[in-house]
Amino acid sequence: MPNILIAEDEAILQRNIAFILSSHGYIVHTARSGLEALDAIKKRKVDLVITDLVMPGKDGMELIGYLSEFRPDIPIIIITAYPSLDTAIEAVRKKAFDYVTKPFKMQDLLKMIERALSQRKNISLLWVKLKPFKVTEREEKILKLMIEDGLIRNEEIADKLNIKPTTVKQHFENLYAKFNVSSKTALLSSLFKLIAAV
Description:
Elements: E1 3-7, H1 11-23, E2 27-31, H2 34-43, E3 48-52, H3 60-70, E4 76-80, H4 85-93, E5 98-101, H5 106-120, H6 123-129, H7 137-149, H8 154-161, H9 165-179, H10 184-196
Parallel strand pairs: 1-2, 1-3, 3-4, 4-5
Helix pairs in contact: 2-3, 6-10, 8-9
């Protein structure tokens, strides 16, 4: 079952959401701040994040910024008691999947979660779409580690594949040429455009 992280500092709401999601079969992790949420994302598998915007320490928007840059594979649903057009626009710009204001119906949140997770499944269709780019088997493994496991650093990827970081660097340079980009961020953006086109 999918792993869902709830970043919410309001204890009662966090417990209620966690209880309902658990009763629907989801594996639930919780965090009381953006910092706790970042720590959880780095330590465990997370398939979807539900985050409040206003939290102590790092707020929800900082968390969304991190996910947008380093884990664009994780869909984000925002819950907030302080809705504004500016925050909604910024959240969408940072690739948040959906935005709901408190109080909300749990049935609505469950539907959003289902939609976000089904969209995430489109990632598996990406690998078929890579054929025209002549991506090698090793390059595909590297891309899978980036997209599905969230590994970004060459050293992490090299460790998983039991190769040298310089070899990973060379593979990335080959991928940049194939996708006509110059960075990992731009490469991920290209890949997610392919997914969106599925």
